[in-house]
Amino acid sequence: MPREISLADVPGLVGQVLGTSEWITVDQQMIDTFADATLDHQFIHVDPDRAAAESPFGGTIAHGFLTLSLLSAMNYDCLPKIREQTMGLNYGFDKVRFMSPVRCGSRVRGQFTLTECRFRGAGLLMTTYDVSVEIENEKKPALTANWITIVQFDPKDRPADA
User: Residue 76: which CATH number?
Assistant: First the structure.
């Protein structure tokens, strides 16, 4: 997949995997920082000794929402830039499922399949991705989601056939 594409190219990419990100290591510092930011200090995330003794995970695990929030970094890492884009927005998720815990020290990466795109208004393109966050050396993904984003562009750049 090229690093940059035209707005007119996007509809022809529906159904294709547009990118797989580099691996991101989820370490205790990342987990603790996220816990501080979200005020979620449950022991399974921030207390390695207690999590090892009292949880089925053998140590701390990342917050599910931490894993979900890494989608932005994964997106920037691997999806092609749309030349005409002036801004991107999160619209939301139709479905998010946390399939497997991300143990501290694990590496994760995202894979993005474009499943839908449609032009809305004069300068907006709504895109939907099936996203899977893989955990290195694990069979089940950390999460799966249907992520909806909006690409804003100057209306003069709208493809003629859109």
Answer: 3.10.129.10
Cβ atoms of 112 and 133 within 8 Å: the answer is: no
> Does 121 reside within a domain?
yes
The phi and psi torsions of 76 (rounded to 5 degrees) equal -60, -30
Count of the separate structural domains present in the chain: 1
Question: Does residue 116 form part of some domain?
Answer: yes
142 in Cβ contact with 102 (< 8 Å): yes
Helix (H, G, I), strand (E, B) or coil at 134: strand
Does the pTM of the predicted model rise above 0.85?
Answer: yes
CA distance linking residue 31 with residue 27, whole number of Å: 6
Q: pLDDT tens digits for 62-111?
A: 999 999 999 999 999 999 999 999 999 999 999 999 999 999 999 999 99
Residue 162 maps to a domain? no
Closest CA to 80 of 23, 142, 16, 146: 16
